[in-house]
Amino acid sequence: MNATQEANSLVVNHLPGQTWNWLKMNDARVAVEASAVPLEAQMDVPKGLSKGQSLAPVGGGMGPDYDRWIQQNAAPQVFQTAEGQKVVQPLKLTYALNGGATGAVACQIDAKADSRLTVIMDFAGQPEGQPGTAAFSTKLHIASGAAVTLVQIHRSGAGQRILNDVGAVLEDGARFDVLHLIMDGSHTYVGCQADLKGDQSYFNADVAYLVQNEDLLDTNYVALHHGKKTESRITSAGVLRDRAQKLFRGTIDFKKGAAGSVGNEKEDVMLMDDTVVNKTIPLILCAEEDVEGNHGATIGKLDDALLFYMESRGMDADEIYEMIAKSKLEAASRLIPDQAVREDVQAYIEAHQVQKK
Question: Do residues 220 and 246 touch, judged by C-beta distance below 8 A?
Answer without folding.
Answer: no
